[in-house]
Design brief:
extended; 3 strands; about 60% helix; mainly alpha; 3-stranded antiparallel β-sheet; about 190 residues; 7 helices
């Protein structure tokens, strides 16, 4: 029975589990994204998020506390130098788990675990989606394509841009007419 069991032991003894979490946390901090099983990723998230919170305070004591968990000097220096400034404003939720399917050999559910502020592609897409629509999961009518095309068009142009565009078109029109006239004369 699993009554009153709060952590996933991952089929390992305590010392092996601590070493596994320390190594995976160091890899996550150094590489910003790792591929693992879903069970390990969920256990790693609960292990690494308090460590990242400790890194917000850059003091000797917090560095020693983080080193006691990670046991990797490069990961500690990377955490305090690059990760901590990016997550300084975030109150929590530093990791994201993205499921990737099932492993071929044993059918284990695999996933990516990554640091949230370091995936620029995912952050840009979500920001664009929220900024354009404003609401999540909003349904549209059939005529919505015209509205979105109009919304995608550039906003109101300034008077200077309109004047420059008109001047450019006026300058190109006589040249185009002259080349069209010479082309018809050459064809005859």
């Amino acid at each position: 029975m699993r009554h009153n069991k709060t952590i996933n032991h991952l089929g390992r003894q305590a010392s092996h589990r601590k070493a596994l979490m320390a190594n995976m946390a160091a890899s996550l901090i150094l590489h910003k994204r790792i591929n693992t099983t879903l069970a390990k990723a969920k256990a790693l998230r609960t292990f690494v998020e308090p460590i990242i919170t400790k890194s917000k305070d850059d003091s000797t004591h917090s560095r020693r506390m983080v080193f006691a968990y990670l046991k990797n000097k490069e990961a500690v220096s990377e955490l305090f130098r690059e990760v901590a400034p990016k997550i300084a404003e975030r109150p929590g939720g530093y990791c994201r788990i993205l499921k990737t399917g099932f492993r071929q050999g044993d059918g284990a559910e695999t996933c990516f675990i990554e640091l949230v502020d370091f995936n620029s592609e995912y952050s840009q897409n979500t920001g664009a989606a929220k900024g354009a629509g404003g609401k999540k999961g909003r349904t549209r009518r059939a005529g919505g394509a015209k509205k979105t095309a109009a919304a995608a068009a550039p906003a109101v142009e300034t008077a200077e841009e309109v004047a420059e565009a008109a001047a450019a078109e006026a300058a190109e029109a006589p040249v185009a007419e002259a080349t069209a006239a010479t082309a018809t004369e050459a064809a005859e």
